[in-house]
Amino acid sequence: MIKVTVCGACGETGRRLIELISQDKELKLMFAIEEKNHHRIGKTINIGDHVVMDNLGEIINETDVVVDFGDFSKTGLEHLATAAYDGKAIIIGNANTKNSILPEINAIKYLIDGRIPCVIVSPITTNKGIPASPSCIRDVIAAIKWIVGKPAKLYDMQDILAAECFRN
What we know:
By secondary structure, this protein is α/β, with parallel strands linked by helices. The protein has helices at 12-23, 72-86, 105-112, 134-147, 157-167, and strands at residues 2-7, 27-33, 52-53, 65-68, 89-93, 118-121, 154-156.
């Protein structure tokens, strides 16, 4: 079973990811993370009895894959650095297209260089507040299953989708 932590867990995309993770027999939700001072810190999420936390570093050793769909401009590089330091795979999306990941791509490449496998999924939405399509969320679930055990490098969804086409 793949142990997953979702960052940005209280946003629309994070909640939908948690719902699909909880329904998948190959995946287990370990932790729900939000940015510091979020109003849901310390409260349980609606699925399961997971309490929303704000410190990925405290729990990173108990997870296999980190999925980060929070506002990348606020917590993304911190979460990426934590995952890289602890050798955990990470899937990065950006639920806020006003703050694109693309300006940070060099920092992302530097942080993962030879350390961890990383998938970039961006943009995950067309506009702030408009959630990702169900097929996009399913692609992220496929990416979670795909990334475990992959060599340390930067991937994109084309890598996963191509592998899925050949697998089926």
